[in-house]
Structures are given as C-alpha cells and as structure tokens.
Amino acid sequence: DAGITQSPRHKVTETGTPVTLRCHQTENHRYMYWYRQDPGHGLRLIHYSYGVKDTDKGEVSDGYSVSRSKTEDFLLTLESATSSQTSVYFCAISPTRLGQGTQHFGDGTRLSIL
Amino acid sequence: ILNVEQSPQSLHVQEGDSTNFTCSFPSSNFYALHWYRWETAKSPEALFVMTLNGDEKKKGRISATLNTKEGYSYLYIKGSQPEDSATYLCASLNTGNQFYFGTGTSLTVIP
C-alpha cells in the first residue's frame, strides 16, 4: 500500500469551530488531493496540490482552504465548520498530474459536525 | 460540470457469473478515464487508467474497454467471486483539467 496517513481518522466537532485534517505521504509524490465522499455524490475533488505551495481548486472548494509547506504534508482546513461539511474526507496522491495517472488513496477521515 | 454516469447503480450476481457495467462520460475534450475498485471500509484501489480510443486493459479476471468517440467505458468481470464484491468507480478527466468521479456501481457476488 502507498504510504499515506490521514489524521485524525474520526472527529466530531461543533458548527463554527475550525478543523484541520492532515494528509502525510512517504512516497515523495508531487501531486496530492483532497476529496469528500457523500451518499449519492461519489467522490468530489475539493482542492489539489501540484507542488510545495502550489494548489488549485476542485469541484467543491467553497468553505475549504489547503496548505502544503512540505512535499509530504497536505492540510485541509475548514475555517468555520458547517453541518453541510459532515462527510468522509479522502486524501490521495499521484506521481503524475491530475487524472493522468492512477491515484492512491488514504483510509479516510470521518468528520461529523454537530 | 463533467457528467460522469455509471450504470447500473447496483447489481447482484451469482458466484461464477460474468458481469459488466458501464461508465458514460462526455466525449468532447476527453483526456483520460479511470477505474477504481472500492471495498467497504477500505480506500479506493486503482484498476486502470485509459486514454486511447479502443484501448483495452486487463488485470486478472477484470478487464475494461474504452470508446472515446461515443463516451463510454465498460468494465467486465469474468467468473465473479465473492471477493469481487465492491463498488466500482470510474472518473473522467477532460482537457480543461476537470476530473469527476461517477457515483459507482455496487457489485454483490452471492456465494
């Protein structure tokens, strides 16, 4: 399995609080991605990174920010969490740019916002 | 939005049966098509990435074909086994760098 670690694996928090999810990789892949998975929607891309300090928006980026200060870490932040952001969040990595090569996924973070 | 649709949404087959399902995507500005297998309580696992019209890929009993002109891909499983039970996802990338997943086909193989 690709060396991808997501933390935390589970989190319950309240509306309005900030939340940061971390994705850590040991594969030295250039590209990293954050997805959310909701019933009826499949996986939807939130943001992705194509290098240190280089990020771009995906399909559902509103309400989320990301940062990548090191190759191995990609952080997803919900500045003020809302109940609509309750979801399962997956990090993925790939050596090639978005969609051109296979992505390897982490085990997911289940986030509940009450 | 790039509409990627998968059918059927779910299906049940008997062990030993062969099965197939469909991924439809916009054919204009197509760049690549992905297939992933996603078992319950695990993370998605890459199966294939396909780019060329007429391309066929195979991995064990699983194979996939691609028709970029009409915008569809088929995934075939030969001689289904209970361990094939999973959700199979496809995702399409266009030349505008839009990458969208379908909602998946849930396969249950009955022993």
Radius of gyration of chain B: 13 Å
Structure annotation, total helices of chain B: 0
Shape of chain B, please? globular
Oligomeric state of this protein = heterodimer
The chain-level structural class of chain B is mainly beta
Rounded Rg of chain A: 13 Å
Strand content of chain A: over 45%
Report the strand count of chain B: 11
Low-pLDDT sequence parts of chain B: none
Helix and strand run of chain A = EEEEEEEEEEE
Distance between the termini of chain A: 33 Å
Structure description:
With 114 residues, chain A is mostly beta strands. Chain A has strands spanning 4-7, 10-13, 19-25, 31-38, 42-51, 54-57, 65-70, 73-78, 87-94, 104-105, 109-113. In chain A, strands 2, 4, 5, 6, 9, 10 and 11 form a seven-stranded mixed sheet that branches. Chain A has a four-stranded antiparallel sheet with strand order 1-3-8-7, with no helix packed on it. Chain A starts with a strand and ends with a strand. Chain B has 111 residues and is an all-beta fold. The mean pLDDT of chain B is 94. Chain B starts with a strand and ends with a strand. Chains A and B meet through strand 5 and strand 10 of A and strand 4, strand 5, strand 9 and strand 10 of B.
From the structure above, extract its key features:
heterodimer, A: 114 residues, mainly beta, seven-stranded mixed beta sheet, 11 strands, globular, B: 111 residues, six-stranded mixed beta sheet, five-stranded antiparallel beta sheet
Write the layout of secondary structure elements.
The complex is a heterodimer of chains A (114) and B (111).
Chain A: E1 4-7, E2 10-13, E3 19-25, E4 31-38, E5 42-51, E6 54-57, E7 65-70, E8 73-78, E9 87-94, E10 104-105, E11 109-113
Parallel strand pairs in A: 2-11
Antiparallel strand pairs in A: 1-3, 3-8, 4-5, 4-9, 5-6, 7-8, 9-10, 9-11
Chain B: E1 5-7, E2 10-14, E3 19-24, E4 30-38, E5 45-50, E6 56-59, E7 62-67, E8 72-77, E9 86-94, E10 99-101, E11 105-110
